[in-house]
Amino acid sequence: MDVLRSEAEHLAVKLARLLVWAVVVIGALGMLVPFIWMVLTSLRTDAEAFAVPPKILTHPQWHNWVDAWGIAPFGRFFFNSSVVAISVTIGSLTLNSLAAFGFAKYNFKGRNILFLGLLGTLMIPFQVTMIPSFLLLKQLAWLDSYPGLIVPGLASAFGIFFLRQTMITVPDEYMDAARLDGASEYVIYRKVMLPLVKPAIATLAVFTFLGAWNDFLGPLIVVKSDEMRTLPLAISALSAGHYVMSWPLLMAGASFVVIPVLIVYMVAQRYFVEGIALGGIKG
Amino acid sequence: MNRRASYGWEFIAPALLLIATFVVIPCVWGICMSFAHYDAIAPARFVGADNFKRLVADPMVPLTLKRTALYVVYSLPTGIVAGLLVALALNAKWFRGRDVVRGLYFLPNVTSLAAVAFVWQWLMNPEFGILNGVLHKVGLPTMGWLSDPNMAMPSVALVGVWQGLGFTILIYLSGLRSIPEEVHEAARIDGAGAWPTFRHITWPLLTPTTMFLTIMGIIGGFQVFQSVFIMSGGGPLDATRVYLFYIFQTAFQNLEFGYASAMAVLLFAIVMALTAVQWMFYGRRLSTWQ
Amino acid sequence: MTFRILTLAALLFLVGRILFVASPIPLAKKGTVWIELSVWGMPFENALYTDVYIPEFERQNPGIKVRFHHFEDYGNRVLLSHAGGIAPDVMREGYASGETWTRRGLNLPLNKFIDGSDGIDRKDFIPVLWDGLKYQGETYGVPQDINIMGLYYNKDLFDKAGLGYPNANWTWKDLKNAVDKLTIDKDRDGHPEQKGLEMAWNAGTYEPFLYQAGGKMWDGDKVVFDSAEGVEALKYYRTLMTSYNLVRSTENRGGLGPDKFFQNGNVAMYIDGSWETPSICKGAPNLRFGVSVLPRGLKPMSVSGSCVWGIDRDTKHPEESWKLVKFLSSTWALKKYWQTLWVAPPARWSALRSPEFRDVTGIPGQVPGVTTPEEFEAKCAWIPLVLENGWTTLEYASPYSDRVGARLNKGIDEVLLQHRDPAAALKDAAKDANADIAESKRGDSK
Q: Closest chain A residue to B262 measured between Cα atoms?
C-alpha cells in the first residue's frame, strides 16, 4: 500500500517536473522567435511579407541577402564597428589595468582620495555628460571621426574598480620576488600581474567589447556621414527607410547585424554567462 | 620607496586624465550650462535659475517622468517574477540541459537593442506582424501594439523584458548558488514543503539579489532610449516619451542645451538618490552578515 | 620614463586641442575645393545626385569637388551638425523648416548672389515659392520643386465596383460615397478585406480639407484652424477615417506607410503627396492606378510643400556653394529632376512647361519611367492642372510649422483615437500652438 502510494507520488513529482521543464524550454525557444521571424521575413518576396495572415515560407528568396548587401555599405559599417569596438577594448583594458595596478599596489600620496573620487564618478550617468561631451568633441574637431567614437570610451571608472578589486588579492610577495630579480615596475605589471588576473581581464574585455559594439546613443550624436556609421546606427537608418523600403531587404539587413553576434555568442557562450555571474556587471 | 610610489602616479595618470576629460569636466560643464541659454549657434547667455523654473513649470517633465516610471512598473516586476521562476527551475538538480537553456534565455542580451527593437517593430506591426497574426488565428482580438496609446508602453516594456530576462536569470542563479546547501538540507530534514522552504528561506535569502535587480531596473528605466527611438519615436500621443528621450530631443533636436542640461541635472539627482538607497541597503546587508 | 613623457604629451595634446583647435584646420586655398551637399529623400533619389548632377557639375567646374550626404531624420541631423560646426555647405531644405533655420541663423543670405552678375531669374519660378524664403528683405534659398497632395486610386478596384474614376469635379460627397462603396468587410470582424481609403493621420493630410472647407491656417501671427471651417473639415475627415477599424499612428516609423497598403492592392484610394508616384510604380509594377486632384469642398484646393537649396551661414566656400546651388536649380537640372525622379514637379515654369515634362524617363534599373501617353495622363496630368489653376497653397508653412504641426497632430489623434469632440480638440490645439509661437518668439527676440 505504502509502496504503491509513494510510487504514485513519485510519478506525480516526475510529471510535475516534466511540465516545468517543458514550460521553461518552450520559453527558451520563445526567446528565439524574433530572430527566426527576422530570417524568415528576409527570405520572402515583398508580396509574401505583406500577406495576411502570414503564410508558410515555400520558396526562400536567397537573393534577398545578396541584394540587401548592396543597398548599403555594410562592409564599411562592419569595419567601423570593428575598429571602434576593438580599439575601445584594447585601449581601455590597457589604461584601466594600468590604473587598477597603480591603485592596488602602490601607496602614493592622495591615493585614497583619488580612488574615492573615482568611485564617485561611477554615479554620474552618461545622460549628464552627453551634452557637454558633444560640445567637447566639437571643440576637439572630433565629431564624425574615429577619435570621437573611440577616445571617450577609453577610460572607465568601473573597469578600474573591477580590476583593482581582483589585483588587490594578489599577494605582494610575487612582486617583491620579481623586484629582487631586478625587474622594473612595468615588467612586473606585464609579466607578473597581468597573467594572474587574466580571467577578470577577459570578462571585462567581453563586456567592454559588447558595450562598444552595441552602443547607440554615443555614435548617434557623434556621427554625421554615412561612411562613419556603426552597425546600430545603420539599423536605425534602415528602420527609417533610409536605404530601401522593402521589409524583406530590411530584415536581411538586420540579419547582417544580428547573426554575427549570435554566432560569436554561441561559440563563446559559457564565457559570457560565467562572466556575468562572476562580475554581476552590465545593466 | 618614495620612488616606487611615484610609479603609482604614473600608472593611474593616463586613465584618470581621460576620465577627468570625458566625465568630470563634462559633468561640471553640464551643471554650469544648466544656468545658461545655449544653442551652440548663438553665444551662451547666463540666465540664472530660469531653466530650473521652466523645468518646474514644464508639463512634459512630470509626463515623461511618469512614462519612465510606467516603463519600470511594466517591465520590472514582470522581469523579476519570470526571471526568478526560470532561475528556480534551472537551479533544480534534476533540470536537464541547463546550460543550453540558460544560454538561450541570455541570447537576446548580447544582440544590439537597436537591431532587435527594429525586428520587434515588424513583429508588432498591426496588419502584417506575426503577433497579431497569431492572435487572429486563435480568435483573440488583435492589438495595435505600438499604435494604440494604451498598448505602446507595455509593448516597449515587453521588448525590454525579453532582452533583459537572461540577465535577471543569471543574477538570480548566482544568488541561489550562494545559498549554502545545508540551509535547504536542514529545512528538508525538518519536513518543510517546497513552498514554505521558498517562502521562509530562499526568498528572504535572495532579498539582496532582488534589491540589486530592482535598483538596477529603476536606474535602467532612466536609460531607456534606443527601443523608443526606433520603435515608436515617443508616440503615439506621447505614450512612450520617456525622460531620456525628452532630454535627447531637447538637446539634440531643439538645440536647447541649457534647458536639457537642467533636465539632466534633475536626472543626476534622482540617480544619486537611488544609488544612496542601494548603498544604504548594502551597508545594512553587510552589517547583518558580519 | 618614456611612458611618463607619452602621458605628458597626450595631456598637452588634449589641452592644446581644446584651447586652440576650435574648428577643423581650413584646407589650403590652392587646388581643389571640397564642398559638402546634403539631401534627404527616398533611397532611389541618390542616383540623380551621384550619377548625374555631381559628375556634370564637377565637369563644368574643374576646381570644385562635391561630397554627397543623404541623411535620414534630416532636419535634426542638419541642426545637430550645424551645432557641431560640421554642417554641409549646401543643404536641401524643406520649405517650412528652412524658414525656421533662417530665423535661427543657419542660412546664408543670398540676395547678392541671386541678383548679382552670376545670378538667376526669379521670375521663372512659381511666385508663391519665394514668399517663405524671404526674411527681413533678404532671400535665404532657391526653390527646387513644388509637391502637391493628390488622390491616388486603384483602377482595378474601381472597375470591379463599377465606379467612375475620381476626377477634378469630384466633391467631398463623391469621395465619401466611393469610400463607403469600396470598403468591403465580408466577415464583419472590423478588419475590412478591402479598404476604401488609406492615409496617414496627421496635420499634413488634414490641411487640404481645411482649405477646401474655406478655412485657413493663419490670421496674422496666430493660427486659426479652430475656425468653424476647420471644425467642419475635421468632422468630415473623421468620417473618412474611423468608419472602419484602422489603427495608424502619426509617428509610425519603418517605411510602412499607407503607400505600402495601397501598393498591396487592397486599398482603393489613398491620399498622399505627388512624390509617392514613382515609388509606387517601382514597388508594385503591375498595379493599375491613377492620381487625381483632391475632391473639392467649398472650393478645389490642395496643399504643397517645396524643397529649396540653402547655403550654410558658416560655409568656408560661399562662392563655390552658390555655383552648386545655381547649378542645382537651373532649368537643365530641374528638367532632369522631373524626368528621372518625378517625385515632384520642378519649381521653374520653363521646366514645367517644357516638352521634356511629358517625357518621364526614370533611371534605368532604379526608377521606373512613364511609358505611354495614357499612363502620363493617368498619373501626371493632374499636376499641371493644379499648378496652372492655382489650386494649391503653402499658406500653412511658417517658421513654427513643427510646433504647430505637433499640436495639430495631437488634436487629430485625440479626435480619432480617443473620440474627442473636434471643436474642443482643435480649440485646445490652436491655443497650445499659439502659446508655443509666443514662447518661441520671445526666445527669438532675446
A: A128
Q: Tell me, what's the pLDDT at C25?
A: 46
Residues 42-81 (A) with a CB less than 8 A from some CB of C: 46-47, 50, 71
What angle (nearest 5°) sits at the alpha carbon of residue C221, between those of residues C219 and C225? 45
Mean pLDDT for A163-178 is 91
Categorize the per-residue pLDDT at B196 as very low, low, confident or very high, splitting at 50, 70 and 90: confident
Binary contact (C84, A136; C-beta < 8 A): no
Interior/surface letters C217-247, b for 16+ CB within 10 angstroms, e for the rest:
beeeeebbbbbebbbbbbebbeebbeebebb
- Cβ distance B255 to C250 less than 8 Å, yes or no, reads no
Q: A38 touching C, CB under 8 A?
A: no
Q: Do C4 and B10 touch (CB under 8 A)?
A: yes
Which chain C residues are Cβ-neighbours of A246 within 8 angstroms?
283
pLDDT tens string A201-219: 888 888 888 889 989 999 9
What is the gyration radius of the CA atoms in chain A, in angstroms?
25
Do the Cβ atoms of B147 and C247 come within 8 Å? yes
C-alpha distances (whole Å) from C405 to each of B158, C12, C237, C398 are 30, 49, 16, 10
CA nearest to C407, candidates C222, C147, C149: C222
The β-bridge partners of A223 are none
Is the bond preceding A53 in cis, omega lying within 30 degrees of 0? yes
The DSSP bridge pattern shows strands C392-393 and C302-305 to be: parallel
Q: Which of B7, B24, B37, B39 to mutate to test the interface with C (most CBs of C within 10 A)?
A: B39
**Residue to test with chain A: of B1, B2, B96, B122, most A Cβ within 10 A:** B122
What is the structure's pLDDT at C104?
85
Are B147 and C413 in contact (CB < 8 Å)?
no
Among A190, A224, A249, the strongest candidate for a mutation testing the C interface, having the largest count of C CBs within 10 A, is A224
Q: What is the pLDDT of residues A33-87, one digit of tens each?
A: 999 999 999 998 877 877 766 677 778 888 889 888 888 889 999 999 999 999 9
Across the range B60-74, mean pLDDT stands at 95
Residue B280 has pLDDT above 70, yes or no: yes
Residues of B in contact with A156 (CB under 8 A): 19
The Cα C423–Cα C411 span in angstroms is 10
DSSP state of B21: I
Under a CB-based contact definition with an 8 Å cutoff, are residues A130 and B251 in contact?
yes
Which of A102, A131, A265 has its CB closest to that of B8? Answer: A102
Are C219 and C430 spatial neighbours (Cβ–Cβ below 8 Å)?
no
Pairing of strands C90-94, C64-70: unpaired
C-alpha span between A153 and A212 (Å, rounded): 8
| CA pair distance B116, B230, nearest whole angstrom | 10
Q: CA-to-CA distance for B272 and C4, rounded, in angstroms?
A: 36
Which residues does C301 contact at the CB level (< 8 Å), separation at least 6? C208, C211, C212, C294, C391, C392, C393
Residues C341 and C358: their CA atoms lie apart, in Å, by 13
Cα separations (Å) of B17 from B12, B24, C15, C21, C279? 8, 10, 11, 19, 53
- Alpha carbon distance C221, C218 (integer Å): 7
Specify the residue for cell string 493663419: C218
